TrEMBL record:
<feature type="transmembrane region" description="Helical">
    <location>
        <begin position="29"/>
        <end position="56"/>
    </location>
</feature>
<keyword id="KW-0653">Protein transport</keyword>
<keyword id="KW-0813">Transport</keyword>
<dbReference type="InterPro" id="IPR006634">
    <property type="entry name" value="TLC-dom"/>
</dbReference>
<dbReference type="GO" id="GO:0005789">
    <property type="term" value="C:endoplasmic reticulum membrane"/>
</dbReference>
<keyword id="KW-0811">Translocation</keyword>
<feature type="domain" description="TLC">
    <location>
        <begin position="113"/>
        <end position="322"/>
    </location>
</feature>
<feature type="transmembrane region" description="Helical">
    <location>
        <begin position="119"/>
        <end position="138"/>
    </location>
</feature>
<feature type="transmembrane region" description="Helical">
    <location>
        <begin position="290"/>
        <end position="309"/>
    </location>
</feature>
<keyword id="KW-0472">Membrane</keyword>
<dbReference type="InterPro" id="IPR016447">
    <property type="entry name" value="Translocation_assoc_membrane"/>
</dbReference>
<dbReference type="Pfam" id="PF03798">
    <property type="entry name" value="TRAM_LAG1_CLN8"/>
</dbReference>
<dbReference type="GO" id="GO:0045048">
    <property type="term" value="P:protein insertion into ER membrane"/>
</dbReference>
<feature type="transmembrane region" description="Helical">
    <location>
        <begin position="76"/>
        <end position="98"/>
    </location>
</feature>
<feature type="compositionally biased region" description="Basic residues">
    <location>
        <begin position="328"/>
        <end position="353"/>
    </location>
</feature>
<feature type="transmembrane region" description="Helical">
    <location>
        <begin position="216"/>
        <end position="236"/>
    </location>
</feature>
<keyword id="KW-0812">Transmembrane</keyword>
Length: 353
């Protein structure tokens, strides 16, 4: 991994060389983009990567101007730059936090891989939850849930909302090359690919379809639940007796799934069909037609059903393992706990040979 001192240098541009030095190589690319700001010729191209684009100034009812943002093709460049930043931060967390903890815990290869995965995701979900809550506090969702669909299409976003989505998309896209950089085991790759692709699909869909309000509201409780799960798994790897966090996670997981389904049905089934601005228009960013609404609702429902199915199988597996371990303990204890009948011949001198 990047930023690590090596005793032996592998051949240049070999697989091992790229894996060990990927963070340094990515840092060089990011620095080149930043250096582009220093020259007038390249500044207009460099700024496209670093700052969010498509700024629109609107005047409020009281006459004060406010800066809002739309999305467009240039966002791809911005996502790419923050993908590079995500790779660098990933390497820093791995090198200066997780690797040091791994050396103290002496975990097996399987637990070592899961510990690294949970460590990275716990940091990201904590960041996402705090950032998402700070954005929602400025909105009126707590007092008026109808803001999820009122005024659709929500083609204009404040800076914090747009930058939040840019960072979310960049993070989950960076997770794809990290499967190679982190030497993830082959048996773990399909599982990680599933949830990475699901995140990219849903977050990008909410961003493009101007459903960023609903997406943000659903991401915040989901981030809290996932943060609790990965934090509990970190504590479990440090001490296998610390399993209380999984019980709380199981409860919140079910609540989050019900909340997601409720808000989705409320938005796509009752809210958007009653909005005055109906129709399909790419220019206006309006996708409020029955086909799009039903497709979005079906995608969310199928994803929640798949997550519940995996959750139930996980709980059943844990329950079977717990039952088997309890049965094994009982079998081991039962012979010792049986009372032995006193031998009537013991101690009788007539039976001593």
């Amino acid at each position: 991994m990047g930023f690590r001192k090596k005793n032996k240098s592998p051949p240049v541009l070999s697989h091992e060389f790229v894996i060990q030095n990927h963070a340094d190589m990515v840092s060089c690319v990011a620095m080149i983009i930043l250096l582009g700001l220093m020259f007038e010729v390249t500044a207009k191209f460099a700024i496209m990567f670093i700052t969010v684009q498509y700024n629109v100034t609107q005047n409020l009812a009281i006459g004060l101007p406010v800066n809002l943002y739309q999305y467009g093709p240039k966002d791809i460049a911005t996502v790419f730059f923050y993908l590079l930043i995500a790779v660098i931060l990933h390497a820093l967390i791995q090198e200066y936090i997780l690797d040091k903890m791994n050396r103290r815990l002496h975990l097996s290869k399987t637990k070592h891989s899961k510990f690294n995965e949970s460590g990275q995701l716990a940091a990201f979900y904590l960041f996402s939850f705090i950032w998402g809550c700070s954005i929602l506090t400025a909105e009126e969702f707590a007092t008026n849930p109808t803001f999820l669909w009122e005024g659709y299409p929500h083609s204009h976003m404040v800076f914090q909302v747009k930058f939040f989505y840019i960072c979310q998309i960049a993070y989950w896209l960076h997770a794809l090359p990290e499967l190679y950089f982190q030497k993830v085991r082959k048996e773990d790759i399909p599982r990680q690919l599933y949830y990475i692709c699901l995140y990219v699909f849903h977050i990008t869909g909410a961003y493009i379809l101007n459903l960023h309000r609903l997406g943000l509201v659903l991401l915040v409780p989901h981030s809290l639940v996932e943060l609790l799960f990965h934090a509990s798994r970190l504590f479990y790897f440090s001490d296998e007796n610390k399993q209380k966090g999984f019980t709380l996670w199981a409860l919140l997981f079910v609540i989050a799934r019900l909340l997601t389904l409720t808000l989705s049905v409320l938005t796509f089934g009752f809210g958007l069909p009653r909005v005055q601005n109906q129709g399909f228009s790419l220019a206006e960013g309006n996708f409020n037609v029955l086909t799009v609404r039903m497709t979005c609702l079906a995608a969310i429902c199928l994803t929640q059903a798949w997550m519940m199915w995996k959750f139930i199988n996980f709980q059943l597996k844990k329950w079977r393992e717990h039952s088997q371990s309890q049965a094994t303990k009982k079998k081991a204890v039962s012979p010792k706990s049986k009372p032995h009948k006193k031998d009537p011949t013991r101690g009788n001198p007539k039976h001593v040979f």
